[in-house]
Amino acid sequence: MLRTNRAAVLSLAAFLAASSSSALRVRAAPTAAFALVRPFAAAREVSPPPPTTAVSMSGSDEVDKAIAASAPSGDDDPPTIFDKIVSGDIPSTKVYEDDTVLAFRDVSPQAPTHVLVIPKARDGLTQLSKAREDQEGLLGHLLYVAQEVGKKECPNGFRLVINDGKDGAQSVYHLHIHVLGGRQMGWPPG
């Protein structure tokens, strides 16, 4: 038997009421969505959500930065902050470095441990979705380094995050992996 809960109903309601605006207004949709899942809620009585709920699409400075960054196309673009960290123009607290990869602490940590793992050379790898077949080895190496950093820094577990594009909240167009840990992570993440 399929069960439902209030969070699932609200998520479905927000999804059904989604529009292209930056702030969604969910009015009649929660009740409509509730009616759609109501037959499956027999295992537990669930009350419909309140008639008006505001949902913000932004919610963080990082999302606002991602919207403003609007995807540069590649290596001809000006150097990113990560290029400047690799070159030494901007200082960083290095956690790991080899010939192709650099890992350093994020200056605006979102968890007790927040390390960024980047390729030293962008080589067109501004987003994960822009990866080429010949970069498969580098992508594997980035993930391997990220898990090594995660195991060392967060022995009780960690999360790896790759933001891709505006909707993925990518604010720096130089592929990077966030290693987050040092506390219990919540779910769902976004």
Automatic annotation (TrEMBL):
Specify the signal sequence span.
Answer: 1-23
The taxonomy runs: Eukaryota, Sar, Stramenopiles, Ochrophyta, Bacillariophyta
Q: Work out whether the entry's keyword set contains Protein transport.
A: no
Name its species. Answer: Trieres chinensis (Marine centric diatom)
Pfam families referenced in this protein's UniProt entry, alphabetically: HIT
- What is the residue range of the motif Histidine triad motif? 174-178
Q: What keywords were assigned to this record?
A: Signal
Q: Name one GO molecular function term.
A: catalytic activity
Q: Which InterPro entries does the record cross-reference, listed alphabetically?
A: Histidine_triad_CS (IPR019808), Histidine_triad_HIT (IPR001310), HIT-like (IPR011146), HIT-like_sf (IPR036265)
Can you say what this protein is called? HIT domain-containing protein
Q: Which residues form the HIT domain?
A: 81-190
The positions flagged as active site in the entry are H176 (tele-amp-histidine intermediate)
Top-level taxon in the UniProt lineage:
Eukaryota
